[in-house]
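REQUEST
  id: r-88c1
  op: predict_structure
  target: Putative altronate dehydrogenase
  payload:
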Amino acid sequence: MSDVKTPIVQFGTSRFLQAHADLFFSEGTPARAITVVQSSGDPARAARLGALAAEGGFPVRVRGQQDGKVVDEERRVTSVRRTLSTASDWAELSRVVTEEAEAILSNTGDSGYEPKPADDQARPDQAMSYPAKLFHLLAARHAGGGKPLTVFPMELIPNNGKVLKARVLEIAAGQKADPLLIEWLNACLWVNSLVDRIVSEPIDPVGAVAEPYALWAIEAQDGLELPVVHPSVQLVEDLEEIERLKLHILNLGHTAMAAFWMAGEADPDAIVRDLLAGEVGEQVKDVMKTEVLPGFALRGLGDKAEGYLAVTLERFANPFLDHRIADIAQNHGQKLERRIGAFLAWVREVQPDYAAPTLDALCAREEA
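RESPONSE
  id: r-88c1
  status: 200
  body:
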């Protein structure tokens, strides 16, 4: 095991984390050492786990367009100094969380918070969900006299910090935890955040290919400090603004493109950048200009929406990313409701007669 202290304990080994937080902690100020934890116990990922902390780090290839220029470069991630598994290294993991950790971050998948039968057990068990494992680790830290720490969930769940805190406190109540432990858990900072970066493919045995754009937006609260200073890490007063921009420009743009594509010849192998350069792309740009941006302007976000749209179109045009529109078109009905229907409802809260004939037609087409 590494003898370097690691103030960051990360649950998750995904290529997204490799090209996102792990890279930021390597490049940022101050550089932060990480213990990466595999919580799934999946033996198929054992090679990845072993390679993450290899001497010399691992590569992240950044490829795409930014500010009108083509970017194609390799960066090295050297922040990961130790790797552990909840299945085989629990004692060492508990020591690290108790003695070294200042912050815990996670990206365990959108279903990672779902309760499991083993969550009710009094002792840690590999079959537990991530929140239950986290409860036992935090309880051990409290018992060892450790200070409250900061928890940064990165799962794509609205109010992820509040949701994770509520689940851990629910588990604590089920375990009939000492009131002093409950008080200590409440003294920890549970942080809402939003992450965004397209990570297109892995590098074997570890590493990833990612677009230049990256964002880790962290919602401010009393006592919170950013875990690292890096251009892609932003402290914001309220995440709703960024969530709306992402959902109703980036995601809405993808869904509108899929709808226009399905209404045409619908080549199953079509990719986003080629569609953007053709008739479908013109339809997307037109609906953005005439119906989406004016809606954001009504909400006081006109200038920010224009800037975000420019960056989004540049991301769509990434010459290195083969993003199939057929993949985006999966679960199309749900995406129409969440991305387009919700946008129209949001705008019509302030202007009930807001005209958006193309977006209304896309939603109506699905309902027909």
